[in-house]
Specification:
Layout: H1 20-29, E1 34-40, E2 45-50, E3 56-58, H2 69-82, E4 85-91, E5 96-102, E6 105-111, H3 114-128
Antiparallel strand pairs: 1-2, 2-3, 4-5, 5-6
Helix pairs in contact: 1-3, 2-3
Length: about 140
Amino acid sequence: MPEPCCPLCQTPLGDHAGDPCLNAWVAERILGWRRASLVTGSTSDMWLWETPDGRWERLLTIPGYSTDIASAWQIVEQMEAHRTIHVSLDNNGPGWVFHIWMNHKEYAEGAQWAPLAICKAALRACLEQKPCTSRFN
């Protein structure tokens, strides 16, 4: 399978930094947020997002899933609520590796920070095994 690329910036998943763009990809693909419309501003363009509960958010207000461990753990909880998965988070010295076992297959991603490893492993699993969120079930 070719390396998946971010739908917003086209960066390959393995190379993606923990930033608002990756947080948006996680929100859309795993947590059921919907990219609704592009708002053009004087200094930059921003997407408006509809959350699963009907609220509207701008890109920079999406939680820091890739940088904050409490936010990242919401990803695991969402996946556990809709799928049978097993997870582990290992500190491998200079960084972290997050493992997800889903449908008899392991998905593992490493990163310097645990939240980033969680995001990347969850995205890899969900991109291969669709659907991942209640919104798409």
